[in-house]
Amino acid sequence: MENAKVCQAMAYPDVERWTSTPATTKKDQDKMLYIITPTYTRPTQLAELTILASSLAAVNNVEWIVVEQFRQSSHVTKFLSTCNTTHHHLVGNVRRGNLCNGLRNSALDFMRRYQNRFKDGVIHFANTDRVYSPRAFEEMRKVEHVGIWPTQRARERFTCNPELTLQSSHHVKYRLNVGSVGLSSNAVLESSFKFKISESDTQGIGGLIAELIDDVQDIEVISCEGMFVWYIPFQRY
Fold first, then answer.
1. Of 213, 6, 211, 197, nearest to 105 (Cα)?
2. If you write DSSP's letter for every residue of the chain in order, what string do you get?
3. What are the 10-residue block averages of pLDDT along the chain, 237 residues in total?
4. pTM, rounded to two decimals
5. What is the CB neighbour count within 10 angstroms for residue 225?
């Protein structure tokens, strides 16, 4: 049976509690996408992962890095075994502060350890309270260094003019929703950047952008009015 259908887990021999499916066989010339999703046990967890997995299933040349808090839960392991997307199931031991920022650091540590596998692609941090059209992932492939697009319903204001969108505030230098940013995997993994668990998601992604660019003009506007990423806080429903 095809690996894409079976998703059999392959353990890295020198990594504890991190498992992966076999490497994606690249199709055509599409740039690889590396989608990082932090998650933790809660009532809506599997529903949120299912929605994201459904979008990823329609996308070629993508690897999904799912990072859980404390342990690989049996229900997430079982869920991932049914997917048709190459995935990596990681654990991050984060006990305080912004859990998502801490789990993102675990994903980046893992990618830096196996950097040759994750080169020449685009990294996107996909929280499970975002809903993605498959088109979103095709738009991400346009990113060369740091690219942005709107996240619908997000608190962070987005305009097509980066000078307006990325106005500095007292707390955030580049105020963007985490769902609105794609980054060169080479640039991110060659940096030493780590998310601060004392900061919000918006502050964290703003700090990463500041690490990677010299000027706001270095940011690529991938779409001005794209309707392909939505912020949907499921736990409110």
1. 197
2. --HHHH---EE-TT-TT-EEPPPP---TTPPEEEEEEEE---TTHHHHHHHHHHHHTT-SSEEEEEEEESS--HHHHHHHHT-SSEEEEEEE---SS-HHHHHHHHHHHHHHHTGGGG-SEEEEE--TTEEE-HHHHHHHTT-SSEEE---BT-SS---S-HHHHT---SS-SS---GGGEEEEHHHHHHS-----TTS-HHHHHHHHHHHH-SSGGG-EE--SS--SEEE--GGG-
3. 33 47 66 96 93 95 95 95 95 91 97 96 96 95 96 82 57 83 98 96 94 92 91 70
4. 0.87
5. 10
Assign 3-class secondary structure to 113-181.
Answer: HCHHHHCCEEEEECCCCEEECHHHHHHHCCCCCEEECCCECCCCCCCCCHHHHCCCCCCCCCCCCHHHE
Amino acid at 214: D
Q: Quick count: other Cβ atoms within 10 Å of Cβ 93?
A: 11
Q: Which residue has the tokens 């993605």?
A: 132
Backbone angles phi, psi at 77, to 5 degrees: -60, -45
**Between vectors from CA 190 to CA 184 and to CA 192, what angle results, nearest 5°?**
115
CA distance 98 to 228: 26
- Please choose, from the candidates 117, 111, 59, the residue with its C-alpha nearest in 3D space to the C-alpha of residue 83: 59
